[in-house]
């Protein structure tokens, strides 16, 4: 078995970059600089950007967690194509700083702090935001008082103008210790009929006695933006791949093509079996039932299984594409690859039937990995070798973009870990890594950590990304460890003179 793993590792060694394109910060967006945003608030508080979407106008909407009145809530901000912050036209009482920001506190009778933002999507003139929250309620006996009752996953709906339209609780737990319900992603689609029926599908993970199970639900979106449940929560378990002692962790949801009124629905993440984690792609129908024609039972996995390491490869994002006629879907799952001495990132490609696309990546394995520092077993690892982690994946034309972070140990004993944003581009057909590099945030006279948590198609070969920048632990003035939103756009550096696309 060890010999087989070693052969696979050698065949999948990071290949040289294709050097097809060199990417840099787009000079058209904010002058080629990071846009750092603290919602006009104090640098002594944290503002964590998590998800992003691009509107038809080219504007970027960034969603994250921001502070308000002593707790964390949802924050939304938008930037135009040039990287100029735009005001919301109708945020009502949720507008802040002249409506430059939308700050939504979901609390009503009881507090409901926002722990994380998991997804944001648009359909028509509505924005749908998936969040993880904390639940509070009141004791039923005197003395009456508010207490923490567990965790929840919620969906908030806004108009594109910023107006709050409503919310729906998707799932919850009663655990006052660790969270047991997790949101992964949402997708919205119409049925291509008149009058149109609009559906929203949800993917996530539920822990049942410590056992991770995929969770799925479908809703009909009303004219008033209310969500009416169609399936309630279901727990797809194709071929018992997620049943004990195995388990699954869902990280995202994607829509492929369609042959009728419903697009094909994929969940992506990780599957645990036989003491290791592998990338997972799972196809379900509109009712959450696994589709057996995909992978034989509804699911497919890929393990890089690099010799000499833990074999724990974790899927973190999924994207899919396909047409209306027939089924020619391409499904890509990106994530972390466990590599001896320095972890890397990777992308696996599946065909419409769940088989590995062996034309993608080197060696006929159907995957590509890059960004790591593989050292053969028995060889010493070098101090300071970086680990890279994938957080999000986007598809645009012929390219895939992956973003995440690089963690690099300090060269000084006991020194602070250095964390920098990471960006890579892969050709979607060949799997050739065109470009991959760190993008440290180093403003004049300053040094901060950075990481990217989402990426979207920026049009014309560009990709926009959102994440955070964080002050170092040694920063003075009470800002140590605090974060701000960070938004940037990458573009191919094809020509130093005409790099901005203008002649």
UniProtKB/TrEMBL annotation:
Residues annotated as signal peptide: 1-19
Keywords for the protein's UniProt record, in alphabetical order: Signal
Protein name: Delta-60 repeat protein
């Amino acid at each position: 078995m060890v010999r087989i793993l070693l052969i696979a590792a050698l065949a999948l060694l990071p290949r040289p970059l294709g050097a097809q394109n060199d990417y840099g910060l787009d000079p058209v967006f904010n002058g080629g600089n990071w846009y750092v945003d603290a919602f006009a608030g104090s640098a002594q508080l944290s503002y964590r950007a998590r998800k992003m979407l691009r509107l038809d106008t080219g504007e970027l909407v960034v969603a994250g967690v921001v502070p308000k009145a002593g707790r964390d809530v949802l924050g939304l901000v938008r930037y135009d194509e040039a990287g100029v912050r735009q005001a919301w036209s109708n945020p009502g009482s949720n507008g802040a700083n002249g409506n430059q920001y939308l700050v939504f506190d979901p609390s009503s009778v009881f507090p409901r702090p926002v722990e994380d933002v998991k997804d944001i999507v648009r359909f028509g003139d509505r924005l749908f935001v998936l969040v993880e929250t904390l639940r509070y309620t009141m004791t039923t006996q005197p003395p009456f008082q508010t207490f923490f009752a567990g965790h929840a996953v919620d969906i908030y709906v806004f108009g594109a103008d910023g107006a709050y339209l409503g919310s729906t609780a998707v799932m919850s737990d009663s655990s006052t210790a660790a969270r047991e319900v997790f949101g992964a992603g949402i997708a919205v689609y119409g049925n291509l009929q008149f009058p149109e029926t609009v559906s929203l599908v949800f993917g996530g993970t539920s822990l049942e006695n410590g056992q991770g199970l995929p969770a799925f639900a479908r809703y009909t979106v009303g004219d008033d933006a209310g969500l009416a449940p169609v399936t309630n929560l279901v727990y797809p378990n194709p071929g018992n791949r997620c049943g004990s002692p195995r388990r699954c962790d869902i990280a995202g949801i994607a829509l492929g093509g369609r042959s009728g009124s419903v697009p094909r629905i994929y969940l992506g993440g990780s599957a645990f079996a036989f003491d290791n984690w592998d990338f997972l792609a799972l196809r379900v129908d509109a009712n959450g039932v696994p589709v057996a024609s995909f992978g034989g039972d509804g699911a497919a996995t890929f393990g890089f299984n690099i010799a000499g390491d833990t074999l724990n490869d974790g899927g973190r994002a999924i994207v899919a594409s396909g047409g209306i006629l027939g089924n020619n879907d391409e499904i890509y799952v990106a994530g972390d690859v466990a590599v001896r001495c320095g972890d890397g990132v990777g992308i696996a490609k599946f065909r419409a039937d769940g088989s590995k696309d062996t034309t993608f990546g080197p060696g006929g394995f159907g995957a590509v990995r890059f960004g790591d520092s593989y050292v053969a077993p028995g060889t010493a690892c070098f101090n300071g070798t970086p680990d890279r982690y994938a957080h999000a994946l986007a598809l645009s034309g012929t390219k895939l973009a992956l973003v995440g972070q690089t963690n690099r140990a300090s060269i000084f004993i006991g020194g602070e870990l250095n964390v920098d944003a990471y960006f890579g581009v892969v050709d979607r057909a060949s799997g050739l890594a065109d470009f991959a590099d760190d993008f440290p945030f180093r403003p004049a006279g300053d040094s901060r950590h950075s990481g990217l948590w989402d990426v979207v198609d920026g049009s014309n070969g560009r990709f926009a990304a959102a994440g955070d920048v964080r002050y170092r632990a040694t920063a003075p003035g009470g800002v140590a460890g605090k974060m701000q939103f960070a938004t940037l756009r990458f573009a191919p550096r094809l020509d130093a003179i005409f790099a901005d696309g203008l002649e």
